[in-house]
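**Discrete fold encoding**
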Amino acid sequence: MSGEREKGKEGAERVERGARVGIDELLERVRSGLDRIEPRAAYEAYEAGDALLVDTRYAALRERDGLIPGALIVERNELEWRLDPLGSHRATEADSHDLRVVVLCNEGYASSLAAESLRRLGLHRATDLIGGFQAWKAAGLPVLLPASRS
């Protein structure tokens, strides 16, 4: 295990033991154990069939900003149930603990915590998209824009 991963693991264990920690420190610890991915690399991995993109943004953001074509939409409060390969409520795509899951939120904060949660379920390749949907869109990657409102 690399030093960075070990640091992330130790940080998570310290938090589990009840040590007080602020969200900024927790986020830093969690991220130190993830192999976070840039938008272009995530797109290429998805296109190559090597990654499942999972959009956890809530409906109002998806309706406002659009969707990533092919991304699985799973609200954050359902994520673990839908992505657990052993779960009775799993999505069809969640068929292996070896699945490379790239979680995205709006700006790349909540997705880091979500990816860590998936790793605790044994999805050891789970990670998140740096900068979230907004970075994806800014990179000029495919987005299905919402229908214009009258």
In short: The CA atoms of residues 6 and 97 lie 21 Å apart. The longest strand covers residues 52-55.
